[in-house]
């Protein structure tokens, strides 16, 4: 699975592009979650202090806002997104 992301400046010009190969995604939801986690990991490594993240995956937003347990295959990825997201 190859994933990618784009970081844009205030005037929406492309500042950075990133991506990579992250193994196999069992579902499209899993691919979206891994892309978000990869982007957060990358932004932290590049020293970003604030970001706004956009996704077209409504199910991902629902799961991140939910207190209920997710599919076992997604729990670690969702927890990683929450943990890294709190660092901004």
TrEMBL record:
Output the superkingdom of the source species: Eukaryota
Q: Which residues form the RNase H type-1 domain?
A: 3-71
One of the entry's Gene Ontology molecular-function terms is:
RNA-DNA hybrid ribonuclease activity
Gene3D superfamilies in the record: Ribonuclease H-like superfamily/Ribonuclease H
What is the recorded name of this protein?
RNase H type-1 domain-containing protein
